[in-house]
Design brief:
It comes from Streptomyces jeddahensis. The protein has 208 residues and is an alpha+beta fold. 29% of the residues lie in helices and 16% in strands. The chain has helices at 2-27, 93-105, 110-114, 150-161, 189-193, and strands spanning 63-71, 74-82, 127-128, 138-141, 172-175, 183-185, 202-204. β4 (138-141), α4 (150-161) and β5 form a beta-alpha-beta unit.
Length: 208
């Protein structure tokens, strides 16, 4: 009988102690918390990271080039190969510009898509050379630069700037099919880092 009484007293004391501790903690602004055990699914592959097995094998024939795609809201280079016909085709500004534009419009490969690569450049655009009165390095797009999305314009400018399509200073002179004056665009680190919000710096230019 005495044993049962002691057990009841002990249990009561423990319960009372728990109530007192809860009151003290509550008075101090402390609330009991639960330790999370569900951390969600395991993370997928790192965005914009392409392993050696993911990079498509480039054709042995053709000219190796790099174009800028969009990944994680930035411009990132990928390797491509273009076919250029003619002895001096690799230095022909219009031919190079058209070949690069076609590559920009191609859908990224399956591994590139999985890594988060996209393109804002739409297919069907064409490039022509300067008109009378244009600077000699002018490239005229069938879609005027001002009608392109911010990402598409940045992709085109930065891809051209690192190729034979650029002028001797690495800038790109672009115009449309209308009578609007052509503009000289530059690809800067800020444009590559934030193409959706930082437009390529540009200025109006006229022929010599």
């Amino acid at each position: 009988m005495n044993v049962n009484v002691r057990r009841l007293r002990t249990a009561g004391a423990v319960s009372l102690l728990g109530v007192v501790l809860a009151s003290v903690l509550s008075g101090c602004g402390i609330r009991p918390t639960e330790v999370p055990t569900d951390f969600g699914a395991a993370p997928s592959r790192v965005p914009c990271a392409l392993g050696g097995a993911d990079i498509g094998t480039q054709s042995a024939r053709g000219v190796p080039v790099q174009v800028f795609l969009v990944c994680s809201s930035q411009l990132v280079t990928v390797d491509r190969t273009v076919q250029l016909a003619g002895k001096n085709a690799a230095t022909d500004r219009v031919l190079v510009a058209q070949a690069l534009l076609d590559k920009l419009a191609e859908a990224p490969s399956a591994p590139e898509k999985q890594a988060g690569y996209t393109t804002a450049v739409r297919g069907g655009m064409t490039v022509s050379g300067p008109r009378e009165g244009d600077p000699e390095d002018t490239l005229r797009l069938s879609t005027p630069p001002e009608d392109l999305s911010a990402y598409a314009l940045a992709q085109i400018v930065c891809t051209y700037a690192d190729s034979a399509a650029a002028d001797e200073d690495g800038a790109v002179v672009l115009g449309g099919t209308g009578d609007e004056p052509v503009r000289r665009y530059e690809c800067t680190p800020e444009v590559r880092a934030r193409p959706g919000t930082v437009p390529p710096p540009s200025e109006t230019v006229s022929g010599s």
